[in-house]
Amino acid sequence: MCGIVGLYLKNRALESQLGALFEPMLIAMTDRGPDSAGFAIYGDEVADGSIKLTLRHADENYDWAALAEKAQSELNAGVEWFKNSKVAVFKLQTSAAIAEAFVKATAPEVLILSAGQSIEILKEVGLPENIADTFNLKEMKGSHIIGHTRMATESAVTMEGSHPFSTGMDLCLVHNGSLSNHNRLREELKREGIVFETENDSEVAAGYLTWRLQQGDSLNEALTNSLKDLDGFFTFTIGTRDGFAVLRDPIACKPAVMAETDDYVAMASEYQALTTLPGIENARIWEPEPATIYVWERSSH
């Protein structure tokens, strides 16, 4: 059992409050996922031609300044960075491919949690409330955010096994459910060049979407194909640079509820996670239909 929450702001005036609005939603999912928690927040975009990486090292005293200095000299590129607990966000004036190759070659012990122009992924083992405090979630600003609380059923409790999982540039996935064909799919996707860090079935779903998008699918097409190729029970929420998407499997046995006002669209595994949102009593509330793709996005860049 796991908990999923997402908040997409239609009203840009609320962007400075995104973290404060979202924190109680994530904490409300503690009973569904006390083992680990994480979230992907979108905002603070870098310009075209630059890339933002979320990096993590197990040592909180890791020397990020030295890595930034090395990146600046070796890549001959502007580098800005800031640290948040065991994570650092690097903004580099270069391409994603060059930046990621540099990190893998120079600091193989550093994990790349996300890459894009907007996304930052933050996740840890522990209670959602502690993780929200660790990263100072309530002070964060942005346009939209998706989060997950995990009760491990398929694999070990590790930071790597916690959600969200990056699925490509500015894309990530959170998943509640279990896939029955993940072992076979993992082997097929490995042959296609997809790399996996864990034995987690949710990472297979993320890898599947990454692969479909690499094959040229739109997000909509990739999700439509997932209904054919993924066996099991799932509710997915997918973060994109411009918004988020929600999809439930054809049987829809994993719970999900949506709420929409003029100011926001929110989703959660349980209604109680939405009750702290402003104006919720007047929101349009519904349960997403099975095998139906819901997408909320700003007009593309």
Task: Give an overview of the whole structure.
This is Glutamine amidotransferase family protein. Pfam families: GATase_6 (PF13522). Residues 2-299 form the Glutamine amidotransferase type-2 domain. The chain has helices at 18-27, 64-75, 96-106, 128-134, 182-191, 201-214, 219-229, and strands at residues 2-9, 36-42, 51-56, 79-84, 87-92, 111-116, 119-125, 144-150, 165-168, 171-179, 232-240, 243-248, 257-260, 264-268, 284-286, 294-297. The protein has 301 residues and is of the alpha+beta class. It has 2 domains: 3-45 and 124-297, Aminohydrolase, N-terminal nucleophile (Ntn) domain (Glutamine Phosphoribosylpyrophosphate, subunit 1, domain 1); 51-117, Alpha-Beta Plaits (2-Layer Sandwich), CATH 3.30.70. The strands form 3 sheets. A 7-stranded antiparallel beta sheet has the order 7-2-8-1-14-13-15, covered by helices on one side. It has a 5-stranded antiparallel beta sheet with strand order 9-10-11-12-16. Strand 13 and strand 14 form a beta hairpin. Helix 5 runs parallel beside helix 6 (201-214). The model has no long low-confidence stretch (mean pLDDT 95).
**Strand coverage percent:** 25-35%
This entry's quaternary arrangement is: single chain
- CATH H-tier superfamily of the largest domain: Aminohydrolase, N-terminal nucleophile (Ntn) domain
Return the CATH architecture of the largest domain: 4-Layer Sandwich
Strand order of the largest sheet: 7-2-8-1-14-13-15
Per the CATH scheme, the topology name of the largest domain is Glutamine Phosphoribosylpyrophosphate, subunit 1, domain 1
Order of helices and strands: EHEEHEEHEEHEEEHHHEEEEEE
Give the uncertain stretches in residue-range form.
Answer: none
Q: For this structure, what is the CATH class of the largest domain? A: Alpha Beta
- Biggest β-sheet strands, sense, barrel: 7 strands, antiparallel
Count of separate structural domains? 2
| Spatial extent as radius of gyration | 18 Å
* Terminus-to-terminus distance: 36 Å
Number of strands: 16
Tally of individual helices? 7
Protein name: Glutamine amidotransferase family protein
Keywords: Glutamine amidotransferase, Transferase
Domain Glutamine amidotransferase type-2: 2-299
Pfam families: GATase_6 (PF13522)
